[in-house]
Amino acid sequence: MARPGGRSARVQEAVHGAVRELESEVGRDALTVPLVAARAGVTPSTIYRRWGDLRELLSDVAVERLRPEAPPDDHGALAADLTTWAEQFLDEMTSPPGRAYLRDALLGDPDGSNAGRCSAYAADQIDVILARATERGERAPDVETVIDHVVSPMMYRILFRPSPLDSDYAHHLVAGLLDGPVGAASDGTDA
Amino acid sequence: MARPGGRSARVQEAVHGAVRELESEVGRDALTVPLVAARAGVTPSTIYRRWGDLRELLSDVAVERLRPEAPPDDHGALAADLTTWAEQFLDEMTSPPGRAYLRDALLGDPDGSNAGRCSAYAADQIDVILARATERGERAPDVETVIDHVVSPMMYRILFRPSPLDSDYAHHLVAGLLDGPVGAASDGTDA
DNA sequence: CGCTAGAAGCAAGGTCTTTGCGTTAAGGCT
DNA sequence: AGCCTTAACGCAAAGACCTTGCTTCTAGCG
Prior knowledge:
Chains A, B: Keywords: DNA-binding, Transcription, Transcription regulation. Two copies of one chain form a homodimer. Chain A is 70% helix and 0% strand. By secondary structure, chain A is mainly α. Chain A folds into two domains: 6-52, Homeodomain-like (Arc Repressor Mutant, subunit A, Orthogonal Bundle); 70-184, Tetracycline Repressor, domain 2 (Orthogonal Bundle), CATH 1.10.357.10.
């Protein structure tokens, strides 16, 4: 039985906070369950029982950090909105902390629910952009199409390729999507 | 100084073999360094010194298993080659053991070199397919384009999405690539 | 054939992880 | 309002794992 307002919630908040504090103080690699527990004012066994593992705890915290805080900027045109969003996304995810959160979120995730949450965050942001475009009368591609053509390639390269990525790559992907047969034809708005 | 033919090589082989045996006997989650060491006939400290961590050892073994054993099939046409390869790739990677190896390979990989090796395996296979197509006189897209449009979307969904994937999705991606503006126009050969 | 250096064995110490049991507190019931 | 139920936490001990200094072995070299 979940008890969202009670002691459980306080403990969860204390532990998450302890992870965030210690991450910036001693570094992510020096984190241990007993260390986090001491900072949070709980016993290690509490963490082991609730999260099972340091990796799962880090995964939870990482997903929290990957959640976008605001809807994407509105630039008045689909191409600009998507390009800007993709550039920001790529920038965040290629930064060392971004890569670390991404790794943590994926790694300590036995059932894949945290990974699914990350994917849903991106899909929601894209959904907002596409809905705005449709409202303006622009032809907009499907969310899944944007994920296939823009999000996936960036993520693949972040995870699997050692080479660095710049915002030109994000721009290239969005252009390839919107100029292609699946995407929206340009609609009078500037591209 | 590497000593490829000596004791180091024997130890490495024994440890890798022990991991493979124990994975199928007791399951991947029950593996521990002392267990593997006992089976391999070495002391745990040897493993800790060479690999540093159970995750890095599992990462090494996983990458070995993800290495393709043969060049991709030749069906006489680019579209058929790519579709078949993508279907097989998707099938392997979505299977529970495939997902486990993929996770392990990404997981114990501090510098990203193992992930890069996985990516290189796929790129090499695609390279063979594209070279054959060019040799036949077909117009073929770039390797990076194939990775962006076919490999990345499959990988993204495997890693981030809970929903199952079937071979229709692989077919859809290849078709989107070859019919699009970036890919090869159909060239008289059957698609 | 002796020398050098990298790699493995051994063992002890420390840290982390697990687990059983008692206690606390949140939510439901009368 | 007060009791009951039950999930969650604290405590502590036991066990497993990880680290590390030192020794021994072996492959390659002069």
